User: Which sequence fits this backbone?
């Protein structure tokens, strides 16, 4: 090894930029969160303004907190720690700048488009398609910058934090691209390529793993770097961190279907989601304990050091959230908790407790180092911690109470289970109103703490000189030639070859017929026996392969990608092949008329799915309350699906025909005029806005391309169909002394709501075969 | 009914296969981790401290 030494100056400017952006956008995201919490308690806080209503602001809140707060914090932490762990400056200053400014531009665009109602109608995936492309491009910029840095590293070994970052980069790219596959109908609107159950599965494969690989794995990497640094001692068990990484990466990706328990999703997928969620307990708690035990011998510092306080509490909340998640994935527990505030409590234990406190701890640790000045006020940071902690506890305790209360009330029956005890949904809403107020107060306390941090940082930074870290390294510290592997080397080695052959032959044995099955059986036995014999004879080769993998980022990345792709493929591919309209049994959806489709787009625009589900579960209380359980075929043409994940209001899957047109007209104008005690906003603009039909032809074309069986209508036929249905609804309203023009948006919304639950008998092609 | 047998029930094998596969991965990685040489783990766990960093003020 040469003794040539060079001095490297890290690019800490980009770390400072992302760090400050995280604090700023965190404040914005949480401010919106407090506003929408107050809207739940007081409907007047919607101000009768379209761009300030709950349905449009809730996506802004979730996207801001996930992609702006945690995103920026993650980039700051990754860039800071990676440069030091690999002893190299970030590969490109230009890419770093492009990454930062591109990401901020996307956030600003989201902050404008979401309140204006430009939405794809899928949770945490609401951004319109041009922004989806921008996100993908900037993510690729990030990936190039990161992997290029790894390629130029001066430290051969890859610390476990780097593994978590690699897992994050490849998995988020895969999830984001698949769930955002859409066909545009205009510059601001598109329909997802998946529909109904397929869309539901893909969405929650993405949604769950957004939590896993955007809110968890990068933060775990940050934890494995910053907690030892703050505690000034190495991680408790490096061995445990190895198990933590591989088991988490392999298991997490399969758990998405637990968001769809007791729904029309095929049962094998529900079982898969539940089993893998339960398996997550072990790696999650392993990681949590590894982090907490890193503080061994440093517990006394918690009294005075706000950084360690935040880290210790964050890890505790990580443990709580990852205990609660698998618990909620048990079908019987989920039957009570799903669609209630319990789920919201669970999410906020993770985001406020785990992500928010890790962000605060990391920020308090980094700022004095990045600006070379002591923190302005340690006391204020400690006060931030206590305010935040009390805020979280108030918030989640209120929502736990609210969720369990409403869940029990909604499922309570009498007369031997044949009659609902609380048939009026609003009775259950009235019961949880005090908890809504408590939630608002808890969220406000947390936000006040965040503002304190912003003030503290401002006073620390003001007048201080930014500094960049420098390090002296030996240029010859790159991997020795015999340790290099190459991407090909990741595959053409005994462990991978034998494992692949065993898997292929075993699948053939299990699923093939006749000679292929016999060949599969023989092949499986031979390959497994061969693996055992080879391992006994040349076991060192197997161990060497793994050791070389740890210093070769490219093959490591490819194998990580395979680990995460497997879960998605096995869940999604069979669902796409089998669960399509041609195979639907029992009932199948009737495609929307042009007016109904236009009304549905308004439903999506207003974010109604944030409070109303369209999925009656296979549970007695759901059926007693909302009607017969939802069949898989009843939403098979829905691009996007609108099954929902929360019932602040009742399910709407069979609301069509339940009330007259006049009821819907009054309800959307002022919900309290027909539903006393409702907290739903008024929608006055639906009565003023003319329906935009300029892109309706294109929308129907796209739906037809995606498989919805629309006839080949001409423009005139579409307009004629639309006009006739509008006239029918307005005539009905006029007969009840309500005058409204045919072309108002409310007419289309009424048409859509009256269609929900209307289906016809299914005649699947396969069932008609004579053989 | 026949259609359901040929199209859907074969997929019920997946939870079982997936569970066993994940269990194998978990077990193998645990074995691998616990067989790491002490010198190797000490080397890895000290990587975050393996730098004598100084600071350079930005102009």
Assistant:
């Amino acid at each position: 090894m040469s003794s040539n030494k060079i001095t490297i100056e890290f690019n800490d400017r980009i770390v400072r930029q992302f760090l400050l952006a995280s604090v700023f956008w965190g404040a914005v995201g949480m401010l919106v969160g407090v506003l929408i919490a107050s809207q739940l308690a007081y409907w007047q806080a919607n101000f009768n303004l379209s761009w300030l209503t709950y349905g449009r602001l809730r996506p802004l809140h979730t996207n801001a907190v996930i992609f702006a707060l945690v995103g920026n914090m993650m980039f700051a932490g990754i860039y800071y720690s990676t440069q030091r762990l690999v002893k190299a400056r970030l590969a490109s200053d230009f890419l770093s700048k492009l990454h930062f400014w591109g990401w901020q531009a996307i956030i600003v665009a989201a902050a404008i488009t979401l309140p204006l109602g430009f939405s794809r109608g899928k949770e945490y995936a609401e951004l319109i398609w041009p922004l989806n492309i921008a996100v993908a491009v900037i993510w690729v910029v990030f990936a190039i910058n990161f992997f290029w840095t790894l390629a130029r590293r001066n430290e051969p070994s890859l610390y476990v934090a780097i593994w978590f970052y690699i897992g994050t980069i490849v998995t988020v790219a895969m999830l984001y691209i698949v769930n955002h596959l859409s066909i545009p109908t205009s510059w601001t609107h598109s329909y997802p390529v998946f529909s109904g159950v397929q869309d539901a599965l893909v969405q929650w494969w993405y949604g769950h793993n957004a939590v896993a690989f955007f809110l968890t794995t990068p933060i775990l990497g940050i934890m494995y770097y910053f907690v030892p640094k703050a505690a000034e001692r190495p991680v408790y068990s490096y061995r445990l961190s190895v198990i933590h990484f591989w088991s988490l990466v392999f298991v997490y990706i399969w758990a998405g279907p637990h968001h769809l328990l007791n729904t029309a999703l095929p049962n094998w997928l529900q079982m898969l989601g539940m089993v893998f969620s339960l398996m997550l307990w072990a790696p999650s708690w392993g990681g949590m304990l590894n982090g907490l035990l890193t503080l061994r011998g440093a517990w006394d510092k918690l009294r005075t050091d706000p950084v360690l306080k935040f880290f210790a509490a964050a890890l505790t909340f990580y443990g709580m959230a990852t205990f609660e998640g698998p618990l909620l994935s048990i079908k019987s527990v989920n039957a009570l908790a799903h669609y209630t505030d319990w789920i919201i409590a669970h999410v906020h234990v993770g985001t406020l407790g785990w992500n928010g406190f890790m962000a605060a701890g990391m920020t308090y640790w980094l700022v004095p180092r990045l600006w070379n000045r002591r923190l302005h006020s340690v006391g204020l940071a400690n006060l931030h911690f206590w305010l935040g902690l009390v805020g979280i506890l108030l918030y989640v305790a209120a929502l736990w109470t609210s969720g369990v209360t409403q869940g029990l009330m909604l499922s309570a029956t009498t007369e031997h289970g044949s009659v609902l005890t609380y048939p009026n949904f609003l009775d259950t809403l009235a019961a949880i109103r005090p908890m809504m107020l408590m939630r608002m107060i808890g969220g406000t306390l947390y936000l006040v703490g965040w503002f304190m941090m912003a003030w503290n940082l401002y006073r620390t930074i003001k007048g201080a000189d930014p500094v960049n870290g420098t390090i002296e390294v030996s240029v010859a510290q790159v991997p020795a030639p015999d340790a290099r592997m190459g991407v090909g080397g990741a595959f053409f080695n005994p462990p991978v070859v034998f494992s692949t052959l065993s898997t292929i032959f075993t699948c053939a044995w299990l699923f093939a017929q006749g000679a292929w099955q016999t060949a599969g059986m023989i092949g499986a036995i031979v390959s497994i026996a061969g693996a055992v014999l080879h391992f006994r004879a040349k076991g060192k080769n197997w161990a060497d392969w793994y050791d070389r993998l740890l210093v070769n980022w490219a093959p490591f990345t490819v194998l990580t990608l395979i680990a995460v792709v497997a879960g998605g493929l096995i869940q999604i591919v069979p669902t796409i092949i089998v669960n399509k309209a041609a195979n639907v049994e029992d009932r199948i959806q009737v495609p929307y008329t042009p007016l109904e489709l236009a009304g549905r787009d308004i439903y999506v625009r207003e974010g109604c799915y944030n409070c109303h589900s369209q999925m009656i579960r296979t549970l007695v209380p759901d059926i007693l309350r909302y009607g017969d359980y939802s069949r898989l075929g009843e939403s098979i043409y829905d691009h996007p699906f609108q099954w929902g994940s929360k019932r602040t209001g009742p399910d709407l899957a069979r609301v069509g025909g339940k009330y007259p047109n006049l009821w819907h007209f009054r309800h959307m104008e002022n919900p309290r005029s027909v539903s006393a005690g409702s907290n739903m906003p008024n929608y006055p603009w639906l009565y003023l806005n003319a329906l935009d039909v300029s892109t309706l032809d294109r929308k129907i074309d796209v739906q037809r391309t995606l498989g919805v069986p629309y006839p080949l209508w001409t423009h005139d036929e579409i307009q004629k169909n639309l006009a006739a249905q509008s006239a029918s609804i307005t005539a009905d309203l006029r007969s009840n002394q309500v005058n409204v023009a045919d072309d108002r948006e409310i007419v289309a919304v009424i048409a859509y709501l009256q269609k929900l639950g209307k289906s016809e008998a299914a005649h699947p092609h396969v069932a008609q075969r004579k053989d | 009914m026949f259609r359901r047998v040929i199209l859907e029930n074969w997929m019920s094998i997946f939870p079982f296969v997936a569970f066993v596969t994940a269990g194998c991965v978990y077990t193998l990685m645990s074995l691998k981790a616990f067989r790491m040489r002490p010198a190797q783990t000490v080397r890895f766990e000290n990587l975050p401290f393996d730098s004598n960093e100084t600071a350079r003020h930005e102009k």
